[in-house]
Amino acid sequence: MGTLDGYSVLVTGGGSGIGEACAAALLADGAAVTICGRSADRLDAAAARLGRAVARVAADVTVEAAMEAAVAQAAEHGGGRLDAVVGNAGGSLHMGPLVMADLDAVRATVELNVLGAFVTLKCAAPLLAESGRGSYVGVSSHAGRDTFRFLGAYGAGKAGMDHLLRVFADELGPSGVRVNTVLPGVIATELMVAITDGGPVLDSYLAEIPLGRVGEPEDVAALVRFLVGPESGWITGQAISVDGGQSLRKGADYGAFAQGVYGADPRWRLVAGS
Ligand code: NDP
User: Fold this and answer.
1) How many CB atoms lie within 10 A of CB 173?
2) Is pTM beyond 0.85 here?
3) Residue 88: CB within 6 Å of ligand 1?
4) Catalytic site residue 154?
5) E-assigned strands of 108-247?
6) In this structure, is the dihedral angle defined by the CA atoms of residues 38, 40, 44 and 45, taken in order, positive or negative?
7) Whose alpha carbon is nearest atom 6 of ligand 1?
8) How far does the centroid of ligand 1 lie from the alpha carbon of residue 24, in Å?
9) 219 lines ligand 1 (CB under 6 A)
10) pLDDT tens across 206-236, in order?
């Protein structure tokens, strides 16, 4: 028995990383879960790791007919209902200065993140409304709120997705469907291994994260689980950061000055990180 017994949830991009962790958290609480992605092999491997009765459907989130079929299959697995969708499929097909960016790479990145969310929720909305407790949780990014140099197409895609989902939240509220997004900071998934293994980009992240560590997929999954379930029943249209506090930091660091004045006080260690 779990607190999501009777829930049916579709997780896009559920074959790896954050999506797989979301699927695991939802399964652990008793939901019937369907994972979706383009690669059937990847979904099979994830299902083997998840080790429970997870359903799989190969579909591209940017293709409407495929997502209509994926949503129908998720409902079938859930006994005829669909209560929630975790719109996690996304990513970047571009990295570099915008002024040198290839149009097709920018277009594909915006298409994946903006149109992927649009198509997924458009297809799922009728069943989410029917459920009476429908929830859509988009996986966005801190990069959609603040500027990340050389990830401009991705940031624009996530910002566009966030706005689109806020409008969906407003339009679907009368049907009882809630729509929220989570904004992860740097998360240790396979996609990010070149960064999280160490080096100057990781250092640039850690310097700005008050909680002083990289996030784990489970950190994001816990928030997604909350937004799927009844505990968040009066929350909609929100974008919630799960980033160790990275989004707090935009101002200058007066630490060098403050240390000169307060550094001898034993309480200094509470803010010094050592
Ligand atoms: P992964 O690359 O592991 O996850 C992306 C998943 O989406 C894959 O399983 C992939 O499977 C699937 N996917 C990609 N394109 C499509 C598509 N067109 N249709 C259907 N499925 C698709 O990365 P993460 O787990 O790290 O990222 C998951 C989400 O979290 C993404 O939206 C990402 O932007 C976001 N995020 C990640 C952060 C991080 O630090 N890791 C930080 C902030 C946000 P397949 O290739 O088989 O289709």
Assistant:
1) 13
2) yes
3) yes
4) yes
5) 135-139, 178-184, 239-242
6) negative
7) 13
8) 16
9) no
10) 999 999 999 999 999 999 999 999 999 999 9
